[in-house]
Amino acid sequence: MRIMDARLKEVYWPLTLSERVRFGKFELNLQTGELVAIEPGVDGPPPQKVLLREQPFRILRILIERGGGIVTRDEIKKVLWPNDTSVDFERSINVAMAILRKAVGDTAENPKYIETLPRRGYRLIVPVQRESTTEPPKAEGRHISAAALRKDLLPVQKELRPGIHLARSWLATAAAILVLFTAAAAFYWGFQSRITLFSSDTLVLADVNNQTADAALDDGMNIALQVALQQTPYLNLLGSDKVHETLGLLGRSEDTPVTLDVALEICRKTNSRAVISAVIRDAGNRFRVGLSAIDCQSGKTLEQVVHEAETREGIVRIFGLCASQLRLKLGESSDSVRRFDQPLDRATSSSPDALQVLALGYKKHLSGDIPGALAYYGRAIEKDPNFGLAYAAQASANNWLHKHELALVGSSKAFELRSRLTVPSRFQAETLYYEDRQEWDKECGVAQQWVQAFPRDVIARTNLASSLEYLGRHDEELGQAREAARLLPSAPTLIDLLGAAIYAQRIDEARQTYDEAILRGVDSPRLHLYHALLAFIQDDTSGMQKEWAWAAQDPVRGRFVLYRQSRAEGFYGRSRNAHRLGQRDVESSMKGGFVSDAAGFESLEALTHAETGNLRQSQALVKDALRKSQDRNVLMLAAFTFTRAGNTKQSQELMEKLNQLFPNDFTVQAFSLPVTRAAIKLDENDPTAAIDILRPVTPYDLALSDAFYYVYPAYLRGLAYLQLKQGDLAAAEFRKVLDHSGVGAGFVTGALSVLQLGRAQVLMHDEKAARKSYEEFLALWKNADSDLPIYKEAKAEYAVLRKSIGI
Fold this sequence. Notes:
59% helix; five-stranded mixed sheet; alpha+beta
């Protein structure tokens, strides 16, 4: 189901359409945008399903509706961007068409489905078969009962409730200091007003017009007003990214003050509904505060609220009062206003000076001057010790500098003050706090509430997707990432979607998302990192070489991509080459000041050696890593690696330290420690105890962490069943590892699981399957170092197997 207001229904339902249509080998769901390849037949592989992005989906619908007729680019423009919405039409249409053609396996040069007619447009060149008829949804009136409202919202709520260590990108960082991309989810409201807002209507917020001589009433008041208006899901403020983009299209610089005249230009260019304008004037010994909604096209005032503040410290409170009353005048229900109406001087600060200093900190933060931003945040807190937003901003800045203990101090204080904040700011403070404490289960619960209350908030969905990733719930993560990318198709949301698709093992969707990101000109280390993994999974040698070459140009910036190269060599048993590449990455990371990353790379190499049987070298490497760093991630990895290398005493000492330092850390307590304890039981030849320890970890088998993951609980469980001679149960665990190569991330246990599966099949007396598994492993390791202990074992076992079956 797609949420559409009455005006959009006129665009999408020009005639009665079937719910599903077939063209060529594809079937399209006209309601959801799901495109399914319905060939081959029932005896072939299952159909492949792709969820089309919004713009390619709309274009395909237009082509289908036209029934083979020509659709001009101008017609596409009018449907996708009505009323001259601000966008680069030519490039955007080209990108959308390229994505659509990619989805159906088509090309412009040799079309099978969509033909390009130069200087005329496009047309569908295959017949369309309609499957079942469905009537267009009927537009409802604006005045409905509360019961009808609940009934209408129920399917919407159901639809919106779906069922590494690298930073979460600039999108999440900006969100931590201010919710910059808040969107409204207003559905139906009964009211009497001169202005009627639809769910798609956006409002442009002009800078506060400060007509006093007090400079502290400038940028700080802008922040206060933005918080006041963004605390409700009813209003839909034009995002700051869209404001900056439109300023460029208007020939202005991004830092142009958004005066009333400029705001009206932006409003018209973006087809927004109205401008919200605020003014502060001297009124004798008082201050007069006014808030207005101004029609974009006519420039006439639609609604206005004016109040006076007796003192300078009362201005923020009066701003909040004006905002609440204006929301009522703009049609928001009184129940909604009561629910989302935190007094503004509590939600921000009653001190104009504190707000002004915070605003200066935000500017420094977003420009990349993090130390400068921290200085301003500290001053804001000095002026108002109860300034929750300033503490949250301080935490975000310290996280950016990898000062996690200081970040936790700030996020803890913001968490303590959360009752003072607006609803979305409170959700932000809570998710930031639980993220800093690595309590992913609790963050997930808060983020789910956030998404339910503000279903069009991109930051809410991004945070929810991230917490689901750490819990191993990748199908749900993918659903949230898809919606975030649909709401705001941008570099961070597309990169998040790429990662989620890989982890959910939706490789075709991951490739489509990567192609879309490239078409949009996206470039970042995270994109290169995910593409390197995607290329590895698809055995795309040229794709991997492309990423190694990119990373080699800047070994510090590309350090995580470079380590993928070392890991790939380890996966294929080329241990010496992996060590050479790994040490190169360790050295460049150390030179760049990323000591913890260097220690992590060395620990992962040590774990690879432990799994392949080089126990002495494994212990030497992990000891060296601990001399470099003993942060949380290195401690988790070292404890587990010592166990796999046979040094359980050292492992237990580190486990005790982890337990004391991180008693509430979800990854430590629910994943790392039990997995390490199970490994110790395996080393002690007590497989039954290992299985018992791993039983509560089963829901998190696919969880990601900042130390080790790679479907390790299933791998260890498989080893335990091998010790118990229960081949069928062992085989199921190793298949789980092999079926989730995205989470396996090219770690050596992915290759070793093929060997272990063969050993399980021997126990099952399935010699034919066992022989196939052994041969597959030996083919993977055809160029492996011949002296690796586990390689020698595999070749000897294969020789015995061949002899036993008479080969």
